[in-house]
Amino acid sequence: MWEPYKKGYKAWLQLERSLSDHSVEAYCRDIELLTRYLQLQTDPPRPTDINSESLRLFIHWIAEMGLSASSQSRIISGIKSFFRYCVLEQIVEADPTSLLEAPKQKRTLPDTLSFEEIESMIAAIDLSKPEGTRNKAMLETLYSCGLRVSELIGLRISQLYLELDYIRVRGKGDKERLVPIGKDASRYIKIYREQIRSQLNPAKGMEDILFLNKRGSALSRVMVFYIIRDLARRAGINKAVSPHTFRHSFATHLVEGGADLRAVQEMLGHASITTTEIYTHLDRDFLRKTLEQFHPGFKQ
Prior knowledge:
By secondary structure, this protein is mostly helical. The chain has 13 helices and 3 strands; from the N terminus they run αααααααβββαααααα. Helix content is 53%, strand content 4%.
């Protein structure tokens, strides 16, 4: 009985909200989870029968499944979106999610790497192998530009403006932004393109993708993760290092260096400044050094 509503909702997400296929799938999965829960009841209700109490019981159900607070919040966001659609299409008169609250999330700070640790990982790359030159260009670009891993593996040659020290990045929701690129990253991209990539035969549809594997196809997110984890091990770094660690480190180093938060937001492609504010944390050593340097009355 929910199928017509789900189909209409999916079309609304695609046509009215112009969301990417990935986002549409995520929202639809949230509704699938809700309908799966409702099917457990003897007389499964329709959207018109749903009230705030039944939704609270659903939230309790997903919490008992062991989902994290962040996962629960994302699902609640999807449910709110669905009933917003139902109100707009006059399927329901009142929005049952209006009083629905997401669980409070503990904001945790991700692991970051020091500049020296990043340098040691890059130094651990074996440049005698063709993929070594590619990996060096990738890591330099990750740290120089603060990219998401999806943005890195999707980076196209036509998005490079190296003579202007910029690249054009397509981020979440297919939003594009211009990001400055450092001299080292730019230099190693040029070396990779001239010496390694020029020797590859790109697979169909991959002609414009910058970073390719040996078969001429785009790298997967998992492959980039394995490359970085292996380099962290080689460099003797005992942290949970992932591609996103480079993005966190990029932002943290900028903020600790005094960069304007709005500029950091723009470079990271964050829709909200609140997301960027997580990087305003400063470790105790940094605070102590700042006090020692600038506060005349500070006593150790």
